[in-house]
Amino acid sequence: MEERVGRDEELAEGGLLEANVGGKTVVVLRSDGRLRAYGGRCTHYDGPLAKGLLHDGRLVCPWHGGTFDAATGDLLEPPPLSALVALSVRVDEGGDIWVDRPDDTPRQRAMPMAGREPADERVFAVVGGGAAGAAAVEGLRQHGFGGRIVLVSREDRRPYDRPNLSKDYLAGSAEADWLPLRPQSFYERHGIELRHAEVTRLDAATRRLELGDGDSLTPDAVLIATGALPRRLTAPGADLPGVFTLRSWSDCDAVIAGLDGAARAVVVGASFIAMECAASLRARGLEVTVVAPDETPLALHFGPEIGGLLRRRHEEHGVRFALGRTVSWLTGDTRVRELTLDDGSRLAADLVVVGVGVAPAAGFVENAAVNDDGSLDVDGELRVNDHGVWAAGDVARYPEVHVGDRVRIEHWRLAEQLGRAAAASMAGKGAPFGGVPGFWTEQFGQRIAYAGVGRGWDTTIAVGDVAAGDFTVLFARGDQLLAVAGTRDLDVAAFAELMRLGRLPDAGRAADAAAAGLAHLL
User: What order of strands is seen across the sheet that includes strand 396-400?
Assistant: First the structure.
């Protein structure tokens, strides 16, 4: 079905136009002087692409930072897994723009991927089925690797959307079949073997993997993508039934099963996972109290203003807080019933969820330098050593080129970025990683996006009204901008693009730049 969507003269270079063709959303753009049209929704969670950013041949989704090649629709940056579908677009003699979207046009397009080549006897193993591992196995095929790929995961499931666990899935508004990233047939079709086993030992000097089922494997290359494990409470009684951590799908299912007959929940910690869990449990009707040593939730990451906004959002929905407090002990009979805090106060609880951080899962690695926090240092292409071992995701501490620090960052999207970069390097097509970290959280309808590397910030620069939930906050160290957080999606997308290109203003000019909208600097 072909429909008129606008005038050619009205769409400038770098412009985006949203239109409806045949009842479906399309986006029309002008990049490098050419008009192009694609399906108008991001292939991740249907973000409106016309409200995003188009610059340097890159089309960025405003919701989660998914990035596509403006010339082809190919996927450039996760979290999407699939490319955009190109549509026929033309300009008639009168200057009207017409887009054709046939009724059978698919919603998304698979990225080109190599198949398994029997003549290629190489074996690449990816240890860990989370964000980094899942992205890596697809990246290997996209970069033409035709050898055997073995994805070894401690979980008994294929890769799934972990961020959804503490949000919609725990809240009861997402079905279980939403979570898997790919059907089983996808891995079979592309010759990706899924092995459900614990890796008990990796000799990083020889690449020998030993598995918990007694089997072993010595691949030609190994990617360590085991992520992190949740920290547990050490207080007496922390091992009582009804006390949970939440990291995996099975963890979340255990929490959901524990809701039966529960009326009062205590969330220990004020991390992103903890705060999202508090919102989800409250959505299920439980009385919820958050206990944490912090004076303001998430202030270390977001600063006191944004942290205060999130606390108010929670309190408006009935969540209580016991801040500046720690848990001394937990008591109960057949399950947890009460927590005693360090000031002697007591909280009744039928359910406790602990969200006090995670630790890198690299305890099985031998003959490699492991940092004090349990992470592994990697070079710019994510190599652990010159013996064919790479690492990506939460377990890797990598050189961050934009702020000049070596960092380890626990973001789902970054783990996907690092997994894709490691795959390119393993396939012989690597380059120093220069992606910009970014993440998002949503709590009681308050969505906040973040981009950059804000560790060590000493100054915040706020534009807009944080208390009203309409703002951009920049984080700086001295005169250097490090990160941005806010509710203005275009500002966050523009910041990430400016950081990628090395064109961020200095902190002294940041307030004026943000007041005018960061996209104007591109």
Answer: 376-377, 396-400, 405-407
